[in-house]
Amino acid sequence: MAATLQRFPRHADPDAVQAALRDDGAAIVEGLLDADVVARVNDEVEAAVAAAGAQPPMFNPVLEAFHGGQTRQVAGVAGISRTFATDVMCAPLLLALADRVLLPACARYQLNIGHLLQRGPGAEDQWLHRDEAVWSDVPRTGGVELQLASVIAFVDFTRDNGATRLVPGSHRWPDRALSPAEQMVQQPPSADAIAYAEMPAGSAVVYTGGVIHAGGANTTTIPRRGAHLSYCLGWLRTEENNYLAVPPAKAATLPRQAQELLGYAVYDAIPRGGGYLGMVRLQDPVDLLARGTL
Ligand SMILES: O=C(O)CCC(=O)C(=O)O
Ligand SMILES: [Fe+2]
User: Fold this and answer.
1) Which of 125, 198, 216, 232 has the least CB density, counted as fewest CB within 10 Å?
2) Which CATH number characterizes residue 143's domain?
3) Are 187 and 162 members of one domain?
4) Which domain holds residue 277?
5) Could you give the CA distance from residue 153 to residue 211 in angstroms, rounded to a whole number?
6) Distance, CA of 262 to CA of 109 (rounded, Å)
7) For the segment 237-293, what is each residue's pLDDT rounded down to a tens digit?
8) Is the CB of residue 228 below 6 angstroms from any atom belonging to ligand 1?
9) 133 within ligand 1 shell (Cβ under 6 A)
10) CB of 123 closer than 6 A to ligand 1?
């Protein structure tokens, strides 16, 4: 018997989803996106997905191995698909969860990465990992979550076509306190500890950065198109350089909330007794963007 995750509708009480995140580290939100949003994103990314087959190798071959040779990757999706930047990245339930998970440890959170991952036929199981390992040098201090992540289905996710695999409760395992390198040599989770995020297109599996998970093997002929969308504390370096992925001229065409999430807003922790990060010419860049003077 495989492990399971709690499932919620899009209009669920965010507190209830947060409770599931606290217990299991992960939860499924069915119907997070309307069918027309799914269709528009699919349309807007199509050319980039087609071009992804001919991309130069990644800067570090380990990353090719991490996603596997059959996976088409498109980074910077917020700069490619306006619908992704507005309706997906700013989805109210995702932000309500980010408020709850991340604001206790920051004055503002930000987009960490918006990454399309199309696991093609023949893709093998991805390595099980914790996403927070990217910040391997941040000391693990009790209870502070660095990240709220999601994988959003842009086709139906099934166990056979590569649905994300997650290990509920693994955010509470003691090995989380080890360095990422030490975690790699721990005993892998047993098969029955793994839950499969089977869900219809437009649904998402949401999880915190300490949960062990990975993409699944695709034994079908259908490419599994998903988006890895995650937010992190506003004082961390982001996985993707979002200012370059969505440069000012493009960011200026987006709503202010999207600009803020992309990192254009100053990080102002002065009311919390701290300082500020990310100003330009002594101003808040998001205001300069609004005035057309960035
Ligand atoms: O593609 C998936 O289902 C998971 C991807 C993932 O875990 C990652 O990119 O960190
Ligand atoms: Fe991951």
Assistant:
1) 125
2) 2.60.120.620
3) yes
4) 247-294
5) 19
6) 10
7) 999 999 999 999 999 999 999 999 999 999 999 999 999 999 999 999 999 999 999
8) yes
9) no
10) no
